[in-house]
Amino acid sequence: METITQITYKVNETIKAEELSNVFKTSGIKRPFNDLERLQRMIKNSNVLITAWDNDQVVGVARAITDYCYCCYLSDLAVNKNYQSKGIGKELVSLVQEHIGEEVALLLLSSPITMEYYPKIGFEKIENGFKISRKK
What we know:
The chain has helices at 17-27, 36-44, 88-100, 117-120, and strands spanning 7-11, 48-54, 57-66, 71-79, 105-107.
């Protein structure tokens, strides 16, 4: 097992599409990691991008869209599998909350395999949601 020396967290640090792609690939999250142009747009159009770094390697990402006064949608929370279960995801969420402030609700959609994770880091399950799925 790999030893993690020091993880550094950065708020709204610009990253490359390739770095986001690598985190998505190594985390197991289902994202269009081969579509670098789309990933670049995802980075560009986010209000909040919090990254976890091991030296010069991005190992975790929290990406969100918010109005900074009422709600924030956490669209991505991904941590490289080699770094999971070390509190990085929880810290990323905590930093998003700190960044958006206390009057803002933090919302997300979970994949079925992560439904048990989110309550462990402070989210409460809700049943009153709806969605229209993307076509691409």
